[in-house]
Design brief:
Blueprint: E1 4-5, H1 16-22, H2 24-27, H3 38-58, E2 65-68, H4 71-86, E3 92-96, H5 101-112, E4 116-120, H6 130-136, E5 141-145, H7 159-169, E6 173-177, H8 189-192, E7 196-200, E8 211-215, H9 230-233, H10 241-279, E9 283-285, E10 296-301, H11 306-315, E11 318-319, H12 335-339, H13 344-348, E12 350-354, H14 361-380, H15 384-391
The protein binds pyridoxal-5'-phosphate.
Pyridoxal-5'-phosphate (PLP) binds near residues 75, 100, 147 and 211.
Length: about 400
């Protein structure tokens, strides 16, 4: 059976060229970058070279690149680290209701520590309104954190416009979770106007378990992990050198290939979206029609449970997702879709197909061929049918 991977928003395969670049740092250059002997110095040099590449690719300073264990840690460090450093200046934080749980749960943790958090709503396309950010800013706001693009529905936020308002109206720092955009669309610190930015290597064909928080000069934050003086005292622990080398290589490759990959993946995505919207009744596209990630297609099929759709696709060799990787195993519908105004039942019928640089036209055609049979079968046996139809009379955005 042909196996088709359409879950690139969850993770990507590591590019063989990245693996190749990493190999010597497991075996030959295995030194601890903090050691003063030759092995250590060679490792240190490789680490700093990789850091310089990451900084260069994102328009940052090498000293502003803090290596982390991935996107979740970068988000935690940005939010909790800034909150701890600035708690005497103010205790108000602004975020959106569609953030990744690494951001939302960090904010919830801070609420328990006495911080006040504003969760901004989004429109039906999943976008934050710049005016809402402006109205939420207070004298005591220390941090605004809004993701660059959403991992479930692919909507790209107006980060530049939000940054202008934050800078003009407050002294707050501005953080963006750019885990879904780095390597997929151009990401540049100055062009976005952000002070802190999170990324994760495994979302752009790099290795898992390594990422970075990029900070602008002058940004103060407290370390979350104490021990050695690594990362300029901002993140203790012997550096994941093969991982950092791999992340730098992956970022370099992704950005170099972006001019070719982005329009190609966007075309495949649009073909998939148009074919699904034209080919099915009672289906809607979730997320913004144009301001969306090149590889993201997210649909809601009414009268169907997303989980059943996924299992049936998996039986046919197609790997998709119902939105966020569901680690809790809970059947709660996506907080993102609910924030966009979908009712519970429609939110339950969502399917995310995320395309990547390895996705072929043939694979998209296969998915389009397989999907109708599954949808028909599930609708025919769905006990949800009546229930959903009633409930969705109140779900105005579904039709
Ligand atoms: C994947 C993802 C994360 C978490 O990154 P990890 O490296 O898996 O911890 C955070 N935010 C967004 C938007 C993501 O897509």
């Amino acid at each position: 059976m042909q196996r088709i991977y359409m879950d690139h928003a969850a993770t990507t395969p590591t590019d063989p060229r990245v693996v190749e670049a990493m190999m010597p740092y497991f075996t030959e250059f295995f030194g601890n970058p903090s050691s003063i002997h030759g092995f250590g110095r060679a490792a240190r040099k490789a680490l700093e070279d990789a850091r310089a590449v990451i900084a260069q690719e994102l328009g940052a300073e090498p000293a502003g690149v803090i290596i982390t264990s991935g996107g979740s840690e970068a988000d935690n460090l940005a939010i909790k680290g800034v909150a701890a450093a600035l708690r005497e200046k103010g205790r108000h934080i602004i975020t959106s209701s569609v953030e990744h749980h690494a951001v939302l749960d960090s904010c919830k943790y801070l609420e328990k520590q006495g911080f006040d958090v504003t969760y901004l709503p989004v429109d039906a396309n999943g976008r934050v309104q710049v005016e809402d950010v402006q109205n939420a800013l207070r004298d005591e706001t220390i941090l605004v954190t809004i993701m660059h693009a959403n991992n479930e529905v692919g909507t790209i936020q107006p980060i530049k416009e939000i940054s202008e308002v934050v800078k003009a109206r407050s002294k707050a720092l501005f953080h963006t979770d750019a885990v879904q955009t780095v390597g997929a669309i151009p990401v540049h610190l100055d062009e976005l106007g952000v002070d802190l930015l999170s990324l994760s290597a495994h979302k752009f064909y790099g290795p898992k378990g390594v990422g970075a928080l990029i900070i602008r000069k002058g940004v103060r934050l407290e370390s979350l992990i104490h021990g050695g003086a690594q990362e300029r005292n901002r993140r203790a622990g012997t550096e994941n050198l093969p991982g950092v080398v791999g992340m730098a290589k992956a970022l370099e490759l992704a950005n170099a290939e972006l001019p070719e990959a982005r329009p190609r993946i966007t075309r495949l995505r649009d073909h998939l979206i148009q074919s699904v919207l034209n080919g099915f009744d009672h289906v809607r596209l979730n997320g913004h029609p144009t301001e969306r990630l090149p590889g993201n297609a997210n649909f809601s099929f009414e009268y169907i449970e997303g989980e059943s759709l996924l299992l049936n696709l998996d039986l046919q060799g197609i790997a998709a997702s119902s939105g966020s990787a569901c680690t809790s195993g809970s059947l709660d519908p996506s907080h993102v879709l609910l924030a966009m105004g979908l009712c519970h039942a429609t939110a339950h019928g969502s399917l995310r197909l995320s395309l990547g640089k390895g996705t072929t036209e043939e694979e998209v055609e296969t998915v389009l061929k397989v999907l109708p049979g599954i949808v028909e079968k599930l609708r025919a046996m769905s006990p949800l049918y009546d229930h959903v139809r009633k409930e969705c009379l109140t779900c105005t955005r579904t039709k």
